[in-house]
Amino acid sequence: MTATKGAAPTVDELRARGGLRGRLAFFGPAIVAAIAYVDPGNFATNFSAGAEFGYLLLWVIVGANLLAMLIQTLSAKLGLATGRNLPEMCRERFPRPVTRVMWVQAELVAIATDLAEVIGGAIALHLLFGIPLLTGGVITGIVAFALLALQGKGYRPFELAIAGLFAVILLGFLSTVLRIGIDTGDAVAGLVPRFEGTDSLLLATGILGATVMPHVIYLHSALTNTRIPATSVSDRRFLLRYQQLDVLVGMGLAGLINASMLLISAALFFGSDVPATDTLEGVHAGLARVLDQPAAFAFALALLASGFASSGVGTYAGQVVMQGFIRRRIPLLLRRLLTITPALVVLGVGWDPTRALVLSQVVLSFGIPFALVPLVLLTRRRDVMAELVNRRITTVVAGLAAAVIIGLNAFLIYRTVAGG
Predict the structure, then answer these.
(1) How far from 226 is each of 48, 72, 121, 181, CA to CA, in Å?
(2) How far apart are CA 295 and CA 237, in angstroms?
(3) Alpha-carbon span 398 to 404, nearest angstrom
(4) Residue 131: count of CB within 10 angstroms of its CB
(5) Eight-state DSSP code of residue 36
(6) pTM, whole model, 2 decimals?
């Protein structure tokens, strides 16, 4: 049997293909979601952590990645179990005033997301080609729009394009980390949870805030809810197993990238006199100074791929949020203009782009409870999830994870507002 033209292939049709091609068809959503975990905000926090504290906070990256695996699995499972995405389920299950507030904050999160990602892409274009930041921001927006246009050809072209950009990021950092001397003993010691003063706690919180992104919690459920139709309980269970593996691979690779950033920074910058390693431009210059120009080029190219891909994914998430919470759609170009404008204003007036990027992470941190708490509440309900409802231990662990993430991000917001 072959799939009807224009219709998504069923589980049976994909399984009938057999071989590697058939198996790979079930993968993709988690790679799209994983882009949010290696966006320009992660570049800033991970390199700062390595330069300031060496390998000390490596355990934070590992821990944040494990939390990401749990959260994204729950979001993917919600889409599979209900056929709806998280914003749609919130609108259906929560009072209307509550969902209106959730929608407003989600739109602010979308703007903050674009701020970080467009700025990251603009900085990368400036580092690679000397393009002015404002022009680079416009180019980043256009590329993101082009990526989203691939959705008109079905889900697979968009997923493959994002996967290609993800591969550029991965290869960019692996090519550098394999060339430098990592202190294995110190790296292993960095896997032991500990802090060295308030500054390390603050930076650890920044790593977590830059890792667990609210918009991609909303998005992942939309990537799985209708991607491959499930017509039976066995289909849903089969798809869930593949989505769990998809998350393991996607988030695992994202964690590898984030760890590579810190390892490179710790090995090359910790204890050195290289200046301004708390900025993306400073990291680029530092790599050229301490290692060589190819390493600096690999960093800038990875940053460019991150800015392009994460901006496209962020705009996709914005569509999901608006359609789910208020059942409204606006032309894609208009939506892109609305969310990209603040980033272009920042670049146009000459504000410090790295500082603006860090502040955008605070806004994203504020949005985490609005996505994470409803996700845990909904996935624990049998009347919502049916046979895919959380096990009790899953709900307990997810609840504790939510409490930790919310508490640390509240601390980050407090320290930022209080001035450090």
Answers:
(1) 40, 17, 31, 46
(2) 44
(3) 10
(4) 16
(5) G
(6) 0.90
